Amino acid sequence: MEAVSIATRQLLIIEPCPACSRIVASLQARGWQVRPVAGAAFTRQAGDAVLICLDGPLRHELPSLRALITHSEIEWIAVLSEATAAEYSVMRFAVDWLFDYHCLPVNDDSLHLALERAVAVARLRVSTKVNPLAESVALGNCRVIRELRKALPALLETEASLFIQGEPGTGKEMLARKLHQSAGHAPGSFVVFDDLIAADTGTLQAALAGENPEHPRGTLFVASLPTLDQTQQALLVEFLREVQAWDVPHGHWRLVVASDENLAVLLSEGRLHEALYQHLVGVQVRLPTLYERSADILLLAEHFARRYASDLAVRPRRFSDQAISALQQHDWPGNLRELSNRVRRAVALGEGVQIEASDLGFDPPHIGEALGTLADYILQAERQALNDVLRCYSKNMSQAARVLGISRPTFYRLLHKHRMR
User: Fold this and answer.
1) Is 118 helix (H, G, I), strand (E, B) or coil?
2) What is the total count of domains within the chain?
3) 226 and 169, same structural domain?
C-alpha cells in the first residue's frame, strides 16, 4: 500500500497519558504532526487519524466516544495498558469500534504501520462514499435476511414514521441510511437527532431547514430511543404534529427511530411517550443478530474482505481453514460491526498469503488440535456449499439442487437445517 505523504500526516492524540510521551516522540521522528486534544474539543479539530489513550477517565465515557466515532470521517486507534485491556467493556469497545488497538509498551513499527493504513482507509472511504457495512445489512441467504429484503420495497414506498429494533452493531443506522438513499424521490438530507438539536422545536426546525433550504426533504434519525428523556420525546411528537404548519414545506421529512429494546417494553416501563409510541407502532422492522445469521457469516466475511481489499488496492486473500473455523465458532456480541472491523483490520494489517485467525484477533488453535468434531466439519462444508450455490442460483432452486447433485426436497431440507429459508 502506498504510504501517505509525510506533509499531510496529522495525528490527533486524545487525552495523552504519561506513557504516550515516548510514542509521540517516535511518531514525530517519523514525520507525523502530533496534536494533543481534550476529548470535549475533538469535534472542533481536523486531522488524518486519532490516537486515543483509554487508560484514564475516557474508559468510563465509551457511549460518548461511540457517538464521536460514528460521525467521524477518520480512523481511531487506541493505546491500552495491560490492566485496561483486561476490562471486558473496554476491549469490546476497541474490537467493535476502533481501527486497531495497541497495548503498552507499544511497538513503534506496528503502530506506525497501523496509522499509515488507517489514514489510507479513511481517505479511500471518503473518496468512494461506499460503506461495505451498509451493503451488508440485507446481504445473505438465511430466512430472516430474505424476509428483510422482501420488506424493503414496502418500507421505501411509505413516508410514515419507522421504528427499527436491533441489538448494537446490527446496522440500524446503516438501514436507515440505505432507505434514505434509495428513496424514489431526491433523498435530501439525513439528520441525526441528538442533544445539539433537541433543545426545542425552533432549534429542530432551524437544523432541518439549514440542511437543505431549497429542497427541504429528508430523514430525521434517532439513533437510540431509550436515551431520550420525556422532554426530548415530546419534542419529536410536536415535530410530527406541526411539521405541515411550518413556513417551509417540511412535509417530506421522515422520522426513523432505532432502539435495541422493544417498543411495548419501553412503553410498559414508562420510558416511552404514549403519543410517540402511537406514531411508531405502525411500521416496524427488526434486524437480526449475527448469531441468527450464522449461516451467512462466511459469506459476509468474504464480502467485507473483497470490498476492503478493493478499496485499499491490495491483493484479495482467502480465509484459512483456521480463520473460517474461528469465524464460525465466535459468538459475535458486536454483530455486523464487529465482523466488519475484524475483517477490515485483517485486510489492512495482515501480511500472510491467507487471512489467518490471528489476523482477525482470534487465538489460533494449537498445532494438531482438532477444529471440531466430524459433525462440525460436515456442517461447515454443507453451509459453504449452500452459500456458494445460492450466490449463483438464488432464483432457481431446482438448478441449485442439480449443481449440488441432490434432490430438490433434500436441498430444501438442508436450507431449513441451516436456517437459510
Assistant:
1) helix
2) 3
3) yes
